[in-house]
Structures are given as structure tokens and as C-alpha cells.
Amino acid sequence: MAAIPERIGKYKIISQLATGGMGAVYKAQHPTLQQELVIKKLTMLDSSHVRERFRREAQIMFNFKSDYIVDVYDHFREGKAYHIVQEYIDGISLEDLIERERYLPEHIALRIMLYAARALKYAHSRNVVHRDIKPGNILISRRGTVKLVDFGIASIRDRINDEDLTQIGMTLGTPSYMAPEQFTSSRDVDKRADIYSLGVMLYEMLTGKKPFPGTKLPETYQRIIKGKYRNPRRINPNISRFSLRLLKKTMQPKLRRRYRDMQQVIRRLERHLRIKPVIGVPFESADMLADFVAGKRTWPRNARVRIGQAAGIAAAALLLIWGSSGILRLGYHQRLLQPGLYGSVSLQLQSAMDPQELSRLPIDARLTSEQFPALQYDLPLRRPLRNLAPIQQLPPLLRPDALPNSLVTLPRYIRSGRYRLELQVGSQQYHQLVYVHARERQFPEPRRQNQNHFVIEHASPAPRPLRISSVIRDQLSGTNITPLARVEALHGGRFQSVESLTANQQLLSGEEIHFRISRAGYYSQELQVSSRPGETELELRSALVPRSGQITIATTDSRTSLRINNSRSYIQGGMNPRDMRIPPLDPDQPITLQLPPGRYTLQSVRGFRQGNELGINLTSDQHRYFLIEFLSDEDIFTLSEIQEGELP
């Protein structure tokens, strides 16, 4: 496999999107505009016809300026290879979308057809016939825009040099999508060949099948010229009469019975979809298509619903009332509305561990679409359910006590397709590629075993030595006091240093450990921590409360009061610090306040008059005494520190 170049011309290569015998396609970035682009590289140089078609594709698309056609910005040669630089569409091709969905809802398919028809009308107005209309050449962005690509075999009706590239009797195109006249001579076809191919593409969107799927060209050709294909309603009974008539008219094998030009197709589609073109809004249904590409379902306001569909919508309305219990969120309405597109998926986690212990582990399960990674579904695991109203509708695995050592998910209806199942149980991860079948094919004969029920066996990891790290802080100030803190664990009936226990590998994961944390000047703390099986590291985070000190205040005048740090309140010390109001001072009874250690400013106050301030540094377990004294002869009051025996 050839190495991916770092640059092509001035463009930085990000990744390779595709490769083949004629060349490769790269995702690139513009050097100054930081715009993502696509570079098509042609390396098949031994054919002058191929080189000329590649150049002419660039020329045709370079001159096009349509919202419905991918823009081309550059064409150049580097070394022996030729390159086309064109617009990058962040989204999905119609071919991949059909593969993901199996077939498309009619209101989506008709809108995609409308925008493809507008693209072809623009090309036809410039005398260009595409000649290779197929789902692989239709791109749908995440924003809901639809664009036509690949004019590599397009013909220009008013240019004589087209004869040099397409000779009489030469056949170009993809056989399953080609009009009958295109098999005779691709050079002589007109815009009605594109109309025919557009009809074939609509058939595939509505049924998920090609109308002429033969692998042998002669057999395919015979079916095409006779116009014999399977009635699409036998594949998808929900196809409307409008779409049947549209298919019949666009896929007429006889030219004179086909639509004459693309405007006739556009007019019919716009009338049926009730879309009125608005200048400056090329994609009227962009939001609807964007939601569909992202995996959401948006139904048109003017959808014409048959009686059978109306019954399904009535059932969905009943489920909406029931939706408060989570049933609607799990997609149960899709079982009624779209059983051909959705299937119920369930996950079972089996383990030898006790279910309660297992449920305490961090468990995360999800399904991610392989075709469209943005499409994800969470799968919450829980113990088998009790007292659920529709218990008779649940599979046996969800019924009470059915799986004593398992966790299960409620069945959830999701779109069929390939998914990546990712499950994390504690520190262990499981990855599995699965295919979710639509409900119509979920229970195949003869055993009728649910193909969408996935079982993961989880083995409890063996106990492993734990490494303990700790971060200890002062609860009041937030200061890190780890270096001077002592962390011990209960082992063998006594508390021992964590450092010695971990050095001797005596603390193992999966066990409940009793810790004691202490430091001089702080209240000690004990706590129990459960470690998870398989863990190797445990970080212990805790906060210690500093041991408090005390101050006792006495006064000789009942009209005096105390302020601490210029406030009428203070933080009361002890194991449970809290804010408290400073009580009134009483000459007959000194007050004692319990304060955390620290720096404080004490101040006496009498009415509106403020006395002197006294700064103190209180330490743990310290008790200090103060007196507020009023000297009436001098009309002053003072705050001073005294000894315990000097209290009045």
C-alpha cells in the first residue's frame, strides 16, 4: 500500500478517503484559509482518454455554480499525476445511508430526489448530461444539504470534441442504473437518460433493492430494455401511489413515454411535498434531512397518512402518555411504526460477583454505529426488574430472580445496522462488534432465538496490592498539611502505618479498609473506604479540623460588647465548626468562646463608641482571659488580657 503523502501541491493532506486502480481520494486542508477540501488524484496515465475525461470533469464542474453540485476549486498536475481540488462534504453518501437504513422513509427519499433533480436541471441547462446517476454520487451533509458529484463521464451536447471521448457504440455508466438507450451508445443519450437513472435511484431508496440487480450484463440489459422489475410494493407495502406513478414514468424504457425534462419531475415533487421554492433557501427540508442523517426522526407537517399508518400513530400517542415511565425513550413506538428498520437490543452482564457488589462498580455500556459514529445509544444495566407493568411483554431474562448473578438492560429499540458494543466494568473494558437486526428478522426460524441479545461474561479480577496516596488539608483554611499528617490502616487488629503496609503488599484491592488520620494540633479522623476489585491505586482525600482554643471575656459594665475581627459573629471551634453570634456580656457571668487556632483582633464597644483593639494569636488547646473595664471617673473603657485568677 502506497504511503499517504504529507502534501499535494500547497495542500496539507489530513487523511485518505478512498483508493483504487485509477488513483486515490484525500481529505486535505487549505494552507491559509484552514478550509477542509477533497483532492482527487489520477495516477492511471497510460490512457489519454482517461486523462482527458479527468481534465474535462474539472472544467465542467469548475464552471458550475450551483447549490446542488459540489464546487471544484482547482486542477493541476504534480509529477506524473493529475489532481482535482473540490469541496469537502462532511456527511454521508446516499449509498451508505441506504445501507445503514435498509431503505428510506418515503418523505425523505422524495426530498433527496427533488434536490438531485434540481442539480441535474442546472447541468442540463448548460447542455451537460451526467450519465452516471447513482446513490454513490449523491452526498448528504450533516447540515441536510444534498449535492451531486462526479461528472467524469458526463457529455456536453453542443461540443464536437465529445466524439473523441465517446465513440458510437461505446457504453459508459453503471449498468444497474443505465437507461436502455445508454447501452446502445452513450454518446447519443440526452437528459432523459439522467431522468431514467434518477427513477432507478428512487426505487432503491424506497425498497433498499435495485430494480435490475443482475451481475451479468446481458441479463441486466434484457430486463432493462423490457422494463421488467419487481413491484416495489411487494418489498415495501407502504409506498404511496404517487411514488408508484413517479417510478413508472421516470423508468419508462421507451423514450417518448418518459418525462421530457427534469422540470416536469421537479414540479410534480414540489406539488406533492407542498414545497414552495424560496430565493436564498435552496434546501427547504435541510433540518429534516440533518435530523435523519443524525439518527433522529422528523415527520413532515403535511404528511399524507393512510388509515393503517394512522392506527400506528394513534398507538404511538398512547405510548406518549406512557412515556413518563421511560418506555417512549426506549423507542418502543418504533416497534409499531417501523418494525422493518428497528429492532430491540438488550445486554446481559454475567458475573460470579454478588449483584449488589457488582452494581456498586462504575458500569458504562453503549452502542456506537460503525457507519455513523455520531449515532450512539446508552445501555443502562440494572438488576432484574420487579413490579414493571408490562412484565408479560419482557423476555424471561428481565423477570424477577431470573438471573441472580446478572445485570440486564431493558430492551431498547434502535436502528438496525453494524455497531460497536463498548462495556466498561470497573477498570475492565470489553469491546465487541455486533449487528443489530430489525424486528422483522430478529427472531429467525426455526429456533426463534433473539439475535439482538448480547451476553458478556465478566470475571471478577483477582485482588491486587494497593498503593495508597493521600492528600490531607486543613478543613478551615484549605492548607495542605499532608507532610506532617499520619495515615494508618487497621490490619491484624491494630492500626499500622500505611507506608509499611503497602511496602509489604498487605493492603489488597476489593477489601474494605479502615483508616485513621491524625496530626498534632488537629482532631483525628477515622473512615472506612471500599476499594474496587482490580484496582491498584487508591487516593485518600480528607480534611482535618484543627483543635480549638478558648477565650474567656469578663466585663464590669453591661453596656459593653465584644467584636471579633470587627464582626458580631465568630466561627465556633470543635469537631463541627459553625458560625455563631457573640453572646451579650454580663458583669456577673464571664463568657467563654471556643475558637479555631489563628490570628484574631478583639475590640470592645460601648454604645456607638469603640474602645481599643487587641491582637492575639490563639493556638490549639490554649485558654486566654480578657477583661473589658469601664473607668467612670475618666469616662473611658479598655480591653486587656488578664490571668485566670484576676477574673472579677
TrEMBL record:
It comes from the Bacteria. Keywords: ATP-binding, Kinase, Nucleotide-binding, Transferase. Pfam families: Pkinase. GO terms for molecular function: ATP binding; protein serine/threonine kinase activity. SUPFAM superfamilies: Protein kinase-like (PK-like) (SSF56112). Residues 11-275 form the Protein kinase domain. SMART domains: S_TKc. Transmembrane segments: none annotated. PANTHER family: MITOGEN-ACTIVATED PROTEIN KINASE KINASE KINASE 20-RELATED, SERINE_THREONINE-PROTEIN KINASE NEKL-3. This is Protein kinase family protein.
